[in-house]
Amino acid sequence: MKEILRSAAILGLVAVLGTSLLAGVDRLTASRIAEQEKRVILEQLGQLIPDHHDNPLLQDRISFQDEQHFPNGQTVTAYRVRLQEEPLAVVMKFQAVSGYNGNITLLAGINFNGSLRGVRVISHKETPGLGDGIETGRSNWILSFAGKTLQNPEPQKWAVKRDGGVFDQFTGATITPRAIVDAVYQALRFFDSNREFLFAEPAETLEGLAP
Ligand SMILES: Cc1cc2nc3c(=O)[nH]c(=O)nc-3n(C[C@H](O)[C@H](O)[C@H](O)COP(=O)(O)O)c2cc1C
């Protein structure tokens, strides 16, 4: 009996230690991913904003939710770009939720007049060799958003070529680009009806929030 109790106690201890170790590794990985994401955002932000702005855009940001345009309860962050307090552009961080393998986090730079400065992928889990052509290191596909507006191309052309639109798909991988095209279109629609609100809202406090 004593022997059984001893074995049970050891087993219990090993289980507790194993779980704690896994939880620790998980936390470490999560914080590494968050750090990596932060670095990529800082790198990419510069490519999506006008050169001449005079506000500290990392601080001049708001976060919000809007289920209609940004589904699955996601929180969107908008970095405002201004010159002498006049709105120039916004960079929005949001997610395309219909990727092949989970959410794709995107940054979209939009001029105040509604034209896209560009789109970049911040993180994704799409399949290497199939869906990862959305990365600038893999192909120029994501650059094709620059200059597009809600009217150009016309709404029914905001789709991949397979669906009758103007955007390329990848060979054997239509789901990933389709998800991004849809998400960017919805972001443009949101901007179109909410740009005054986006620039009028006071900036949020920085404490505890990702960039
Ligand atoms: C293991 C595996 C991984 C895949 N990864 C992706 C992916 O990352 N992105 C994607 O669009 N399609 C991916 N696909 C293909 C999709 O299932 C689907 O067939 C494709 O997107 C449809 O595009 P198509 O009509 O050009 O074939 C993957 C398929 C398999 C079997």
Walkthrough of the structure:
The structure is a single chain. With 211 residues, the chain is α+β, with helices and mostly antiparallel strands. It has one domain. Helices cover 33% and strands 21% of the residues. The chain has helices at residues 2-45, 175-200, and strands at 61-64, 76-83, 86-99, 102-111, 116-123. Strands 1-2-3-4-5 form a 5-stranded antiparallel beta sheet. Strand 4 and strand 5 form a beta hairpin. The chain is globular. The N and C termini lie far apart (58 Å). The model is unreliable at 207-211 (pLDDT under 50). Flavin mononucleotide binds at residues 100-101, 126-127, 130-131, 169, 172-176.
Strand content: 15-25%
Structural class: alpha+beta
The number of helical runs is: 2
Number of strands: 5
Helix fraction by DSSP (H/I, runs of at least 4): 25-40%
Write the layout of secondary structure elements.
Blueprint: H1 2-45, E1 61-64, E2 76-83, E3 86-99, E4 102-111, E5 116-123, H2 175-200
Antiparallel strand pairs: 1-2, 2-3, 3-4, 4-5
The chain binds flavin mononucleotide.
